[in-house]
Amino acid sequence: MNVLNKLHDPALGRKMVGRVRELAARAAERLGRPVLLMEVCGTHTMAVSRTGLRGVLAGLLELRSGPGCPVCVTAARDIEYMIALARIPGVTVATFGDMVRVPGGQSSLERERARGAGVSIIYSPADAVELARQNPDREVVFLGVGFETTAPLAALSISHAAELGLGNFSVYSVHKSVPPVLRALLELGDVRVDGFLLPGHVSAVTGSRAFAFIGEEFGIPAVVAGFTPVDILDAIHMLLEQVLAQNARTYNAYRWVVRDEGNPEAQQVMEKYFYPGDAYWRGFGLIPGSGLFLSDTFARFDAGRKFALKVPAVADPAGCRCGDLLRGIITPADCAMFGRRCTPAGPVGPCMVSSEGACAAYYHYGATC
Amino acid sequence: MCLGIPCPVVEVPEKQWAVIDVGGVRRKVGLHLVGEVRPGDYIMVHAGFAVEKLDLAEAEARIKIWEELLAFERAEQTS
Ligand code: SF4
């Protein structure tokens, strides 16, 4: 069997679950309560739900979602800015699909598009550059939403646009950095987790070392995890071994993709194009040094400076508990609107919109999955 | 949105661009972040770019450790 298939092999997965359950039972007995692990990646939230792992480990181990869905953590004011950009005549905003349905104060990109605004769904930042090249009479703005995995790709798109001499391409960067939000979460201290499943593809860029502070400064184990069932079980197992041994280190269980030092090319590209500044996160407010903003050298590609729009302050949707969810305080079922007033067909908050949002994951796969 | 897909490289027609196979569909992806890649190599693709080369031997080794651990446990339980 091909090794990639083997990582999805149900027979191997089942046997690993048996072993994980055993360790979880021992750890839960030691703690006098179920083990609480946080998954810090929307793709983990989805994978864990899809495989039914939450149900299989229920009572022994809880997997709680954290601030790992880039669309969900985007602040209401930034959503408002994106909608305002789309309203400018002659502007086309190019975005990943998840963003278009996120509700703003009054509207959404989807609604603006229905009214005739230029909103284009793309798969890659490279597509946005292509769009600008093909439409010289329009201003194309790429909505840069994402973490360290996506930010270098947005930087490459700027480099490409500069090479082509495109004056009609810019990026609205709300890219964010994961280590600072985990630090903020730990400093807030509203939830005491026993371990972190760290985001595999963010770590591929930053390296597992960027998360060493979790063990060193906060005494909590953390493990970089991949996304196949075998990878996830392997990482949970490593966390449980640490809980039982009262160890608190940051390990890398995703060595077939992630280097401890990360990807130096991607890091260099990020450093060249972005500088770390204070950024607003839904659920957290302002987090120092957590945003990736375009450096002055590339100011002409910065949609924030190019259009310098003033948008009114907007509140998060009334009653939506995405913020609490992103801080790991609640699970989706704790929100009174979950599955009633708020569904994927009629979402109230971004956590129900995004394919990586916890509310969407729990809705599709069952609230206790 | 952040989905990463492990894909085999089919050909490298230009220095920084490769053609990959995603479940039978051919796609062009940027190699700007991963250095030299050859046909037959595997890469992790995210939003149209390779973000890392894959070390499948490492995955294989990890699976082997698990299989040995599980076999050892079974032997213990039956003995
Ligand atoms: S169920 Fe809807 S309203 Fe409730 S937290 Fe999730 S997205 Fe917000």
UniProtKB/TrEMBL annotation, chain A:
InterPro entries: Hyd_form_HypD (IPR002780), HypD_1 (IPR042243), HypD_2_sf (IPR042244). It comes from the Bacteria. GO terms for molecular function: 4 iron, 4 sulfur cluster binding; carbon monoxide binding; iron ion binding. Keywords: Iron, Metal-binding. The keyword Iron applies. Transmembrane segments: none annotated. Pfam families: HypD (PF01924). One of its GO terms (biological process) is protein maturation. Belongs to the HypD family. This is Hydrogenase expression/formation protein HypD.
Automatic annotation (TrEMBL), chain B:
GO terms for molecular function: carbon dioxide binding; iron ion binding. It holds the Pfam family HupF_HypC. InterPro entries: Hydrogenase_HupF/HypC (IPR001109). One of its GO terms (biological process) is protein maturation. Signal peptide: none annotated. It comes from the Bacteria. Belongs to the HupF/HypC family. This is Hydrogenase expression/formation protein HypC. It comes from Desulfoscipio geothermicus DSM 3669. The lineage of its organism: Bacteria, Bacillati, Bacillota, Clostridia, Eubacteriales.
